[in-house]
Amino acid sequence: MTVPFVREEPRPPPPAVVERGWQVERAFVGIEIDFERSQLHGAVEYIVRPLRRDLKEVRLHSGQCKVITCQVNNFVSVSEVLSVKPKQKGVEELIKHDKIRLEDFNMQAQQLNEEAHGPNLCITIPFEIRSDLQKQFGGKNQPPPEEVEITIRVEYSTQAHASTGAIFPAQENDEQMPYMYADGRFGFAQDWLPCFDTMNSWDRCPYRIAITVEKEVMAICSGDLVDKQLTEEGKHMFFYDLVYPVQASEIGVVAGMFKVLADPRTPSTVTHFCLPGRAKELVYTGPDILDRARKFFYSFLGKPLPVGSFKQVFLGYGQGTKTPQCTFGGLGIFAADTLHSERSIDQHYVARRAICSVVASTYFGVCVRPRGPQNAWLVTGISEYLTALCLKDTLGNNWYKLHVVDITKSMCEKLGGTISLAEASQSDLANTSARHRAHLLVYMVEKRGGMDAMQRVLRDIVAEAITLQTRMGIPPPKSDEGYGLLDVASFLKRLRANSGTDVRPLVRDWANSHAVPRFQCGYKYDPRKHQVELVVKQDLSQGGVRRSGMVDGVHPFTGQLTIRIYEIEGVQHDHLVDIRDEMHVLELPCHSRRSKHKSAAQAEKEFKEDPLGSCPVLWVRIDPDFEWAKSMDFRQPHYAWMQALKMERDVVGQYEACQGLTNSAEDIFINALTDTLSNGKLYYRVRTMAAAALATSYVEDDQTAGLNKVLSFFRKRFMYESGAMKQNNFAQITDYFLQRDIVAGVAGVTGKEAMEIAGEFLLSVLNSSDNAGNVYDDDYFVADMLTCTARMWCEAKKCKESCLRNDSTQKFG
């Protein structure tokens, strides 16, 4: 069988390919899956075009594969498995050069990494074939003939019970059916298939893959299923074509006794699979979420899924499954935990997040690929950015804004900083913090270029990639130019052409940095000058934003911050401030009117007597539109946070105001938080943050004033007067999240009296919780109650022991 692949006009191969002397054209893979021994047996044939008349060897990556025989044009070849070079010593020597430029360091470190993980299977070209090549080539400097090809065949088997490459998870009981999957990402393709396991575009080629399994087993692979045959031994053989050039790491294989669900909307192109026992959950989880995600991406990017067929496979049995979520060409693999019934609330978000991520990666990750490892962060960042936009389409703008706040916070909490995106490899980008950093950088680029310009750029990139794929009968270019390859420079050039904004300095500084800016800010109103004195200080103890071209030393953040001052009479004014040094002291004028009859001294006297009534500044926000990923410790008076909580319309401003009122110590602030908690028109996360802040608030003569307000709200809303819980009713999803987050907020109180009250409350809620008539499961709610109750009583025990030790010390000291 041959892959449908018609030649186009010859293209000159890249210099690196000419230097090594050969170029891969296409590949044929045949594997048999042995569940009894937990390994693969197979053979792979590569059709290689010689580029030099003196070609003596071809090298592949074989990883942990056991090579049985090698043949070149049916001649048995001598093969040698080379030992890989250790790279650690080389990197240590490189680090000793403290004055090396960052770009040189990245380039040399990448070279050491390639040498350490270079091809280790050396296949010698037999003498007979070399003699034929000498005859078939023209003169010494003549280009190689197009019709000259050699076939390299490698028979192999994989390591039994391998932890990488072809993975056969162990079954916990006899009722669980065996299954396997091949995950070749991050350099592990060579552990299940001898291949050219690189990120070089010239090592891509079309594949035909034949998979042999037992009769009752189904084999699923990326690409399109073109045939299915029954062998003489009574086994099934599945044939898949990957017509367009791919790398070996972009091929996924799954096998098992699957239950099959054809998509009710597009049964001919989309199919869902799961293991036995999860079919009902598959019906609820798979089709609807995928359909909504496909509609969003079609609307936003202007193109349908760029694959001929799409397959969703859910692997594993229940909780704790360690199957990684990954995307290959037309194949998405998920853990079985993603499946859920219509009774689940929390798992629905998990499933939606996972499926949207796989669909986004099909566009940016499979269809559009990075041009080399140094551009991998951009494709990853765009995929994460599109996933968040897809979820925003379902969950709303308030969710999206706080999601950006959450991932920024999680990245800032890493004290050592994250890995530099310019240095990140594909495996580094599997780390959550690296993906968050890439997402936030793309988000900041979009904030400056504009959503419309960003959408036009992404649409053009996807349209060009799909156009190249759908040129029937003409293969995509084999050179480093084109075929869905994206690099940072071309992306920023397109964005500048569409928006008129040059964001190259921003991307250079942030992509080469390991940290995020950390600010400490505060202000006071000067009644004499009728202005705000604001201090912005950068905390460089955890590193600043490193500028490109520097490898040592820490440099402060440079850029423009927006300071928004809200004043009486409905006046608000934005001040755009240049931040370049470690500390700035700013004097910002107020724009509200001041009585002409008041002198400066009189205004100052009134402000001292009544700061809340005579101050024209209601509250201040820094970077209100969240244009920068940053850590901000902003201190302003509690009365300013209270004004923001009452009057701010932006959800992030309301959320920050609740955080600012944490540990407040006056009745007026406790009442403001109570009103927020009770206001059903506010976004639920603002209300739950108000509950958490309220639980820690107090007044001088009552240390549990705020906690009692929270418990009073909860009892009035969710409990009978007798103290027993009402039957759970999560028909209003906000009530569900309120209950969960109030329990968590109450468990965070400190102080002996507050902890005793909170502990008794948590026990009463746990003992009387009733989910009998609820249409939704309460498993996550019960888990929260158990966790919080256990933590509360452990903390109470520690507090009691500490008090006893202090009493003993005072008595006998």
Q: Any descriptors?
A:
single chain; 813 residues; alpha+beta; eight-stranded mixed beta sheet; five-stranded mixed beta sheet; 22 helices; globular; disordered N terminus
Task: Please sum up the structure shown.
The protein is an alpha+beta fold and 813 residues long. 38% of the residues lie in helices and 22% in strands.
Task: Tell me what you see in this structure.
- This protein has 813 residues and is an alpha+beta fold.
- 38% of the residues lie in helices and 22% in strands.
- A hairpin with a 7-residue loop joins strand 16 and strand 17 (270-274).
Number of strands: 29
N- and C-termini, Cα separation:
91 Å
Radius of gyration: 31 Å
Order of strands in the sheet with the most strands? 5-4-8-2-1-11-14-13
Largest pleated sheet: 8 strands, mixed
Arithmetic mean of pLDDT: 83
Number of helices: 22
Into which percentage range does the β-strand content fall?
Answer: 15-25%
Shape: globular
Extract low-pLDDT stretches: 1-10, 85-92, 94-115, 472-482, 544-553
User: Structural class, from secondary structure content?
Assistant: alpha+beta
